[in-house]
Design goal:
Blueprint (H helix, E strand, L loop, with lengths): L1 H12 L22 H9 L5 H13 L4 H14 L4 H11 L5 H12 L19
Helix pairs in contact: 1-6, 3-4, 4-6, 5-6
Amino acid sequence: LIWREFYRHLIVAYPSLCKYKNFNKKYDAVIWNEDEHSFRAWCQGETGYPIVDAAMRQLNQTGWMHNRLRMIVASFLTKHLLIDWRKGERYFMAKLIDGDLASNNGGWQWAASTGCDAQPYFRIFNPITQS
């Protein structure tokens, strides 16, 4: 709950976050991979990485996913596939039954290392060892 409140305060202070803007502007110049095939495979749970695929299938079937799995699949999308975090954020908001704009935005920006409290850009969740 405290993370949700923290991210809500950020959205009040920085309304541009509601418009898919990076909190940390130095990442505005990042060139993301536009590979639609890889994005669809991620969405459908067909990446070939069992933990990522199981998590995405759970999301698609139930509308919910454990927080640790949310971090793993977000890291995978942004740091393995190099796909823009905003695509993942939009997909999650369309699927999650507990979707919250502030928490979703904050979590995705954390995973992509573009947020105010982001993990370091070199920290990448290993989908093999996380299993």
